[in-house]
Every structure is written in structure tokens, then in C-alpha cells.
Amino acid sequence: MDQLTLARPDDWHLHLRDGPAMAAVAPYSARQFHRAIVMPNLRPPVTTTERALAYRQRILDALPADSGFQPLMTLYLTDNTSAGEVRRAKSSGHIHAVKLYPAGATTNSDAGVTDLAKVDDTLATMAEIGLPLLVHGEMTRADIDVFDREKAFIDHQLAPLIERHPRLKVVFEHITTRDAADFVRSSGPNLAATITPQHLLYNRNAMLVGGMHPHFYCLPVLKRESHRQALLAAATSGSPKFFLGTDSAPHTKDAKESACGCAGIFSAHAAIELYASAFEQAGALDKLEGFASHFGADFYGLPRNKEQVTLVRQDWRVPDTLPFADDQGEAPLVPFLAGETLHWKLVT
Ligand code: DOR
Ligand code: ZN
What we know:
The protein is an alpha/beta fold. It has a single domain, classed as Metal-dependent hydrolases (TIM Barrel, Alpha-Beta Barrel). The chain contains twelve helices and 13 strands. An eight-stranded parallel beta sheet has the order 2-3-4-5-6-7-8-9. The chain has a three-stranded antiparallel beta sheet with strand order 1-10-13, covered by helices on one side. The radius of gyration is 19 Å and the shape is globular. 47% of the residues are buried. Bound molecules: (4S)-2,6-dioxohexahydropyrimidine-4-carboxylic acid and zinc ion. (4S)-2,6-dioxohexahydropyrimidine-4-carboxylic acid binds at residues 15, 41, 106-107, 136, 218-219, 249, 263-264.
């Protein structure tokens, strides 16, 4: 098979940043995807409906008028997010989920939730009005090993949460372990998961063997090969509980290649191509469309995309850097697999 046509995919987990940085990266997602769930971990975080709607407008203003790209907004859950705020969010029509970052879990997560009990009424309201909760599934207690944080989150936070709120729709974001894939598969239909391209294609050796490779560092961190195999099996299983979410998260080259390098992998330049490589490795290209273009929309209760995209088998080299910006001005970004040759190409 040298050509692959599928319904235009959506990205159910994306970091777009803001200002010039956002203007630099948003076109890559708009080229690939019809819609994307946009993460709220800006500084300051997107905690209110008003901020989310203003952010949505800035994204639309940064794209050509005919791009057709739809940013689906999210609210950042804090200890103080009220039931009234999530009702306002839902009735805006543009806010499709609320994101839980355990405090301290990752980039800009210090305003995150310190104790789920504090937001129990808000979660009950979300279950009632049908607004999904998206979770960064890592337990952040200092004594928990970084490679065990996802499993600890399942046991101590996620399992009790879904038992307490069985009608709440929950997306376990960017799962990285066999434990998470098994937990999602064995739970009811209100729990689903997104999977990134890096977690389908690489294990932690890519990050740590032969030197430290900061462009393979993201959170949750890459795990051992047996976990990658389990994720690939889940993604290609045809189960509607697993769908595409890139977690594409740009940081400048300097911020990544630093004594304390930031977590985040930018993959929006080649997202669907990377997923196609992973599915091809598993001999499951026929399962790509469900994962990339159908199951996420179904879970969120949105229509499937009618438009189609085509991928062709063609070698192309990923650029070494792409133009990007930080607070100081222009600064390059190193895209995922910079300098490497990919074998599928999205044609427009
Ligand atoms: O690697 C990551 N980068 N994981 C996250 O959860 C956040 C993201 C970011 O915003 O940079
Ligand atoms: Zn993320």
C-alpha cells in the first residue's frame, strides 16, 4: 500500500502556547487536523470561561480565515474551580473539557489540584452536564519514583475517582504503561485514553542510551519496551477507548538543551505521519482511521469529519529547526525527529 486516505483526523490533546509562539506552531496543527483539544496550561492558566473564549479567538486570529481549523477549548481545574464556572463553560458551546493537573506534575502545573476532595462538587456537576474531565495521570508525591507515577495515580486517584463519579466522562491523557492500557480497557465506556506518537514509537532507551537526548523527554516520561508494546497493541486494537492525542508541546531549542531541560515534544509538523509509521510497524494501517479520525469525536459526542486527507509513501527529511519564539523574541524549535527521514507524507 503506497497511499492511504482517511477522514481528516483530530488531535484530542495539544499545547498551542500563546502570542508569537502560538502563531508559529498553530499552522502545523491546522494543516493536519480539523479540530484539536487545546490545553489550558498557559501562564497564567486558562481557569475561566472568559479566558478560554479570549484564547480561542487569539488562535483563530493567528490562522488564515479559511483554515477551517476548530480549536476546542478546555478549562484548567484548580482547587477553586466552582460548579458555576463549569456550567458557564459548557453553555459557551466552545469549551469541551476540564483538565486536571495534579499540582507540580508538569510544565505550568503549580496551580493544579492539591486534593481531589476539594473539587468534588465541581466533578459532580461535570458528570451531570456531560463535560469530560481530562487527567494528567501522574501522582506527584516526592517519594514516588518517576517511572511509577502513572501506576500510583491509577491506584490512588483515578480508580477511586471513577468509582465515586461513574457517570463522569474521563480521558486518561497520554498513557504510557501497560497498567494504564489494561485499566482503561477493563473500565466502563466513560473512561477512554489518548496515546502520543512518541509513546507508540519509542521506549526510554531512545532518551537515555548513548547520551541524554532531551528531544525525547516529555512527561509522562517514556517507559520500557514492554509498555510501548502494550500501548501499540491498545492503539491498533480497534477499541474505541483509545484515540489520537499528540501532546505536541513546543519549547525553544535552548529551553530543551539546557541543564534543566523542559519536558515536551513538538510533533505537530509530522503527527499523522508518525502515527502511520507506528501503525505500519504493527501491521495495522487499516486501524489508523478509527484511532485518528473516529473514536475521539465519538467519545466527545461530536460529529465525525467528512473531509478526507491522503498520505503517500514518500521519504522526506524533517528540518533541523523550525521558526518559533519565546518571551524575548524569535527562537528556534527542534521538531521531533529533526534530521531524520520519515517514510509517509501528508499531501494536501
Ligand atoms: O511533556 C510535557 N509537556 N508534558 C506535559 O504534561 C506538559 C507539556 C508542556 O506543556 O510542555
Ligand atoms: Zn499535555
